Amino acid sequence: MLKYITYSCALTREFRAVFIFHSRNIITEGSMRHEATDIEKELIDELNNKIRGEFCLIRVTQTMLEKCIIDANRNFSRILKAGGFFDYSEAADGEISSKNVEILAESGWTTRETSFYRPKAKPEKAGDPRFWPSRFGELVEQEELIYITVVRHSLFIIPLRKGLVYSREVQERFDAEHQVEIRIGEVVSKLKELQGKWVKSCSPLTANAKDVGDTLEAQFNLPINNLGTADYHGVELKAKRKKSKTADTLFSQVPNPKISPKMTARDIILAYGYESTHPKREGYKDLFVTVSAKPNPQGLYLSVNYNEETVDLKCTGRPELGPDGHLVAAWDFDLLESRLSEKHPTTAWIIADEKVISNEIHFKFETLEVSQKPVFSQFLFLIERGLIAFDWRGGYHPTDSGRVDKGHAFRLKSARNRCLLFGDLRPIDLTS
Questions:
Q1: Does residue 5 contact residue 381 with C-beta atoms inside 8 Å?
Q2: Of 219, 307, 376, 419, which residue is least crowded by CB atoms under 10 Å?
Q3: How far apart, in whole angstroms, are the C-alpha atoms of residue 266 and residue 277?
Q4: CA 328 to CA 317: how far, in whole Å?
Q5: In 3D, which of 43, 158, 142 has the Cα closest to residue 104?
């Protein structure tokens, strides 16, 4: 069972809501420990697959139930604003806005009037954002994890119970209409034309991991590219060999220099890289490594910072470069969300067989699955679970302009994890 990761947000001293934003597997409030159970992890994945929207999670505490107050942090506020539901930045201190919220109970969906407000605080200091649904204690239990999302400008709250998550009410309310036949139709037609045919590789004498994708794109008359948008009229084409076990490249993106101590890829590679062993790169510093939630041999690891809304590249165990856990570079949420959305509005996952014919490599494109737009909240979630990593693939000479850049990119580990980011993949029959 894959483990979710949890994060304890520092909120007000008086009342602290424990938000599970998937950081370190166990969160703490005072002497209390909260851990996402295996059942809760399964239920979150089930809801993400059905709803396909931004979400956050809250662990209901005794303080919340006694005081009838939940503090809202930046990520909760961001989701409400992005969904067009409520904007705390426009709320005046001391004024309460009442809006209806849909909460799933054992008896079905119930509408509860909910207060969204900032209490009056010290002069020149905005009050901390808060909310509370009317008679919320009747619908949830202490220590229960609840799922919050905004869909079509409406806010929904679902307690994570099997009987609710798998209920007919959830299925009927969030039956995702993810039909992509219009955009995928030409892709299907072209692949059907190629059924049973062996297509010569774009690199027939040398086998490279990217050749199957480049060969497919050539069949669609697409130039080899590293565009930030989807390949074919809004459809991203992803082709792999049948026996390939390589990670899925999601998109390429170096850290944001405006928020990074090490401002460029060159700065990072020269500082944290290693002496190149490549015969043509004598004197270079190389960095061909995978960076995920746990420190790699270079001490580099990824950490999601929900307070600053960044994904941070950090380093530990390198005292000559800085203290343990020092910040190396960062990507801001807005940029990552935009890149993920632009690159994968709809993705066609194609599997090809490989065969050598007359001493030349050929491919036969056999199967197709289609996925929908990924959910950014889940992208962050999977980084913390170690299922999405960042690959550095380059090298620089420290004293001249020599460089090699193979593409620095976020990648999803293993094809079996695609459904966690993209929801259920829809297989399309290419034989009919």
A1: yes
A2: 307
A3: 18
A4: 13
A5: 158
Three-state DSSP class for residue 84: coil
Place of tokens 């919320």: 136
Quick check: 39 and 19 in contact, CB under 8 A? no
Alpha carbon distances (Å) from 190 to 150, 201, 202, 366, 405:
38, 17, 18, 12, 33
Looking only at Cα atoms, what is the longest distance across the chain?
81
Q: What is the pLDDT tens value at each position of the chain, 432 positions in all?
A: 333 333 333 333 233 334 444 433 333 333 334 467 899 999 999 998 888 788 999 999 999 999 999 999 888 898 999 888 999 988 888 899 999 999 999 999 999 999 999 988 777 777 889 999 999 999 999 999 999 999 878 899 999 999 999 998 898 787 644 344 556 788 899 999 999 999 999 999 988 888 999 999 999 888 766 666 667 777 889 999 998 989 999 999 999 999 999 989 999 999 999 999 999 999 999 999 999 999 999 999 999 999 999 999 999 999 999 999 999 999 999 999 989 988 998 899 999 999 999 999 999 999 999 988 898 999 999 999 999 999 999 999 999 888 999 999 999 999 999 999 998 898 988 887
The per-residue DSSP string of 301-360 comes to EEEEETTTTEEEEEE-S-TTT-STTEEEEEEEHHHHHHHHHHH-SEEEEEEEEEEEETTE
What is d(CA 352, CA 206) in angstroms, rounded to the nearest whole number? 17
Write the CA distances from 219 to 216, 235, 359, integer angstroms: 5, 15, 21
pTM of the model: 0.62
What single DSSP character describes residue 417? G
* 209 vs 68: CA distance, rounded Å: 56
Which of left, alpha, beta for 386 (phi over 0: left; psi -120 to 50: alpha)? left
Cβ of 114: how many Cβ atoms within 10 Å?
20
Beta bridge partners of 388: 412
